[in-house]
Amino acid sequence: MLYRSAHKLLAGSFRATSIKHRASRNGMTLVEVMLAVAVIIIAALGTLCYEYLCIDHIRLARAELTAARVGQLLIEDWKSEGGAADYDPQDLNMGFTLPPDLPPGAFLTTIDGLPLHITMSHLDVATDPGAGVTLRQISVVVRWRNDLGAGELSDSDPSVNLITYVRRDQ
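Predicted structure:
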C-alpha cells in the first residue's frame, strides 16, 4: 500500500514535469536567449573593433599621402632650380621653418595638423670635367610621428624617402 501511494505520487510529479517541459518547448529557454544575446554582443564588438582599425588606417594613409605630396613638391621645386646646394624651401612661403636646433638641410612644417620633419641633402655622384657636367643626387626625407603628434622622432617613426638626379652644367 505504501508502495502504491509513493508510486502514484512519483508518477504524478513526472506527469506534471513532462507537461511543463512540453509547454516550454513552444518558446525559448532562458539559456538559449542568453546564448543568442552573447553571440550578438560578440559580433557587435568585432564589428566595432574592425571599424576602429579602419579609421586608424585611414588616418595613417592620410599622413603618408600628405608626407609624399610635400616631399614631391620639394624635390620637384629643388630639381627645377638645378639641385642648387643653397636651395631653401622657406622661399616657397608655405610654412617651412628652419629651427636653430636642427642641422643644416632640416626643416619643419605642419600640413593639415600633421607635424612633418624634412631633411634635404645632395651628393655629387659623377663629374665629367671635359664636358663640364656634374650628376647630382638630391634627396628629400619626410618623417612624422606614429601618433601623428608633435615632438621628437624615434627610429620607428614612418618616413617617405624621395631621390632623384639632376644634371648640373658648370
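Summary: The mean pLDDT is 85.
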